[in-house]
Amino acid sequence: MTSQAPLLSVKDLKVHFPTQDGIVKATDGLSFDLESGKTLGIVGESGSGKSVSSSAILGLHRGTSAKVSGEIVLNDTDLLTISDEQMRRRRGKNVAMIFQDPLSAMHPYYTVGNQIMEAYLVHNKVSKREAKTRAIEMLDRVGIPQPDRRVNDYPHQFSGGMRQRAMIAMGLINNPGLLIADEPTTALDVTVQAQILDLLQDLQREFNAAIIIITHDLGVIAEMADDVLVMYAGRAVEYGPCKEILTHPEMPYTWGLLSSVPDVTGDTDARLIPIPGLPPSLLNPPSGCAFHPRCTHKDKVKGNLCKTEMPELLPGNRGPEHTKRCHLADPEQIYFTEILPEIAPDLVEEFAEVNPDGSVGDAEPVRSSDAAAEAEEKKI
Amino acid sequence: MTAYIIRRMFTGIIMLIVMSMVTFLLFFSSPVNPEDFACGKNCSPALKAQTKKALGYDEPVTTQWVKFAKGVFVGRDFPDDPALKESAPETIAECPAPCLGYSRTTNSTVTEQIKEAWPISLSLAITAFFMWMIGGIVFGVIAALRRGSIIDRGIVGASLVFYAFPTFFIGLFLYKFLAIKWEIVKIPEYVPISEGGVSVWFQGLLLPAFTLSLVYMAGYVRMTRAFVLESMGEDYLRTAKSKGLAPRKVLYKHSMRAALTPLVTMAGLDLAGLMGGAIITEQVFNYPGLGKLAVTATRNFDLPLVVGIVLVLAAVVIVANLVVDLLYAVIDPRVRVG
Amino acid sequence: MTDQTVTSDSGSAKSAEQSSEFAASRLAGGDGRDAILEVENLRMYFPVKSSGVIRRTVGHVQAVDGVSFQVPAGGALGLVGESGCGKSTTGRLITRLYQPTGGKIMFEGKDIAGLSPKKLMPLRRDIQMIFQDPYTSLNPRHTVGAIVGAPLLIHNVVPKKKVLPRVQELLEVVGLNPEHYNRYPNEFSGGQRQRIGIARALTLQPKLLVADEPVSALDVSIQAQVVNLLQDLQREFDISFLFIAHDLAVVRHFCPEVAVMYLGKIVEIADRETLYNHPQHPYTQALLSAVPDVKQAAIGGRRERIRLEGDVPSPINPPSGCRFRTRCPLAQEICAKQEPPLLQIGERHKVACHFAGEIGQHPTKPVTARLLGIDDQGNPDPGATPDPNAVEQPGFADTWYDVQGGHLGAKA
């Protein structure tokens, strides 16, 4: 989010699926930028369009009935204007993807090594033997014990965590500039999730890759992301630096995500405030703000504005980097008086002190990524 | 692995024993007396009794079955009468092991008859098998790749037509036009390879094998199409694409491998079933294979022949089942036979 | 663990009043009520067959191996752990979907572990289960009314005419439109289906609900709806819960008492404040440190993460001694030789570790050695006599071991 040209720049991305009942607007006008070495977290529930958008970056909708429009500029090339063959050459080389369920994402009939080698062979003119050496090297790098032996195993012989490590090895074997991780830890246990997140962060530092991490888990976002983009019904509803969004959310949907998930620390008497109702239909989205039927704060906006007019994604009172799609005039005040005291009464003061740039109180601005690096991992 | 095969063979043998018992019982519960048929037109009650004795039908079912089972391993004589064998050996029919019985209507051993008919059915089955597998997979894959297009609808529609029409109709239709009216193909006739060479053998087979394959092909087109489409929705296909693999490689290496594996099971069992004779096709083209033999035997209430054919068929299916399972373990690494 | 009678000195003054009324045999829930369910040394071994011609049993998957706990009446016990730790098997044993290999399942004072299916029939009314996947646990060919009403008909509870009104009443209780009784499950969203599953479980007014990952298949915004619904139901109908989940935060939110399982055993059990704030078992500590905490991370305070190396060992051939030792940063010789007992170390806190202690304060010498009659390396010590009380019991006793002091402690 600085002036320097970003690695990836998505502008007004739309992915529409024509169906017999009408057009499903899975993604409807999404824009964001991402620099090398940075992590963007995309949060949203199922059907919010987060996975569809990332598939569009990889060009996976080509050859289907989906209509993709807008701009996806990666390394100064608009991926939506190049040919299928040019896109294919970039897949796996410039942009790679890892998926939620590593068991179903790997072909059951081929060895793990074969599938990793394949990713290398398709973009490099090398012998099979060299590719295998490289695959073993990558398996070793992602922490698979005895990689020279395990390279000949089939996916079902790996544990869930090891399979996800192998997927990461496959994704990073060509040293891509951008890695898209679609719910990479959702299918894993917490201790394994921690291992995988650590590994992703280590590798990011080593390869200076940009990462898009797609998840419904704000905890994962909080640990991994520099920027956060909250999606609802195919649109970004809030976008900004991670720390800022998590401490000063300005969109009631984001409040809902924060208040409906309990924490392992904090007050056990704190209530969970669920978001009422159900996610909207993308075929026939609600008028005005897509979230208004589930929003408990729409009465605070004068007139019937929430119902009639879709709010633009604009900066609020917290500076230009924090944008939100909401008509509420003073969301900060509502959050700090009505929501936060209910869900985390102990944190109201600490949150209030966080500045839009991520610094705390009046102190020198500290970049959030530095703060995370300081929290050193130790063994007991 | 070896232990698994032994275990499977063991259960297979038990199944064969049960099958033979059931066939015996079914046959004897029918209201017809088989000796009426074996005895012929000028039948006197005395002659009938003699035939009955010669066939062994005068004994209880259990005894008959035990004798039958014994005959399979050591062979037997018909009638099983040592005294008669001494005095008039010409009235005794010998049936060496493996003896599946002796057919009075044709005056030959069942084993001999099956030996004669078996290559015919086998030729037909294998030829048809290759035809329908190639056709089924090719058309199925094309339909899947062009899903929703006119080509897809045409293939699916045609397969439905062939699936719906009875075999005898398609058979007679093709026979009449291709072989008789337009003389495009030779009139079907079985010539063993040993006599006329592969070419003649194949030309004689072409029409019945094609007819047979059409019906099966219809099913395989639809299955292949469904399996390929299913595999295209799999996560690992998305992974393959996201690696930057060429579409052809995605199709051949990733999609087809997954889609064709379940076909192996079905193809193996279908082939095994056909080896026991394609009843209608053989009838239509007057092909003297196992199917035609079975129909004749049933019509004549020729118990030994029916039991023999049923058992051979069951054995083929059991062995095919085992082969398919073993093959599956080879092609799908997740299946560990053990 | 000598004196198991609750006396008036247990807990706060308020709970003391209640407990005297209930005259509990053992201290159970936080409010001192009886335990509705008491599980003792529960074991479930699934046989593993050999591949020979004759299929012999060559080993066992020790899915659950000696688990003891109590669920207080009207209370909730949480069972957490990672996949394969045996928590779901435990739930299925308690609902008797499996026949346990050994141990006792005392439900309202009656052992149901060995009951025949016929004798279980009336108990099925009292113990119900909520399943994880709302998409596969409902029969797609039955209407919601049929699904929810089936238990009423099977158990012949109400006349046929009254089934429908009762079904509609239940649908309303779980927050569904009662007029939708004739719809099919596929017409509902995931959250609504889970509500149907809950209504089905409530039909027979059970006393104990075993909830196996009831919210993990749902979207986050829907999870909170279902958790709140379960809490309301618990209050309204006084249902006890065995709440099985891998999500530590949800379990903490729902259950006043939580047990942590690892490879078929309970490694730590305590009231939630103690377990989450002062865990003493290194596995619990690692597990908790691995959970990302949104609000803490937001202000930069990422807690120290304890990395666990490797994978969970196979339950067919679990490690000797302590099952966690292969991945434990504290493991010493004694851990391989001697299995640590689940020792009560606080008023409502039990832990199974030779080196139990808070993070960074783990003792250097095994605290359990003297109690087990062994030396610090785990070899039998002829000079020491094992403490006969160091045996696992389902509930909490009035006396406990002071791990730091190494002596028998008691309430102040």
Structure notes:
The complex is a heterotrimer of chains A (380), B (338) and C (412). With 380 residues, chain A is an alpha/beta fold. Chain A is built from 14 helices and twelve strands. Chain A has two domains: 296 residues, P-loop containing nucleotide triphosphate hydrolases (Rossmann fold, 3-Layer(aba) Sandwich); 73 residues, no CATH class. In chain A, a hairpin with a 7-residue loop joins strand 11 and strand 12. In chain A, helix 3 packs parallel to helix 6 and helix 6 packs parallel to helix 7. Chain A is globular and about 70 Å long. In chain B, the strands form two sheets. Chain B has a two-stranded antiparallel sheet. Chain B is mostly helical and 338 residues long. The longest helix of chain B is centred in the middle third of the chain and has 40 residues. In chain B, helix 7 crosses helix 9 and helix 11 runs antiparallel to helix 14. In chain C, helix 6 runs parallel beside helix 7. In chain C, strand 9 and strand 10 form a beta hairpin. Chain C is an alpha/beta fold. Chain C has two domains: 212 residues, Rossmann fold (3-Layer(aba) Sandwich); 126 residues, no CATH class. At the A-B interface, helix 2 and helix 3 of A face helix 10 and helix 11 of B.
Q: What structural class do you assign from the helix and strand content of chain C?
A: alpha/beta
Outline type of chain A: globular
Number of strands of chain A: 12
The percent range for strand residues of chain C is 15-25%
| Major beta-sheet overview of chain C | 8 strands, mixed
Report the C-alpha radius of gyration of chain C, rounded. 23 Å
Greatest interface: A-C, 62 and 55 residues
Which CATH architecture of the largest domain in chain A would you pick?
Answer: 3-Layer(aba) Sandwich
Sequence of strands across the biggest β-sheet of chain C: 6-7-8-3-9-10-12-11
- How much helical structure, as a percent, in the residues of chain A? 25-40%
Please identify the oligomeric state.
heterotrimer
Spans of chain C of 5+ residues with little confidence (pLDDT < 50)? 1-32
Order of the strands making up the biggest sheet of chain A: 6-7-8-3-9-10-12-11
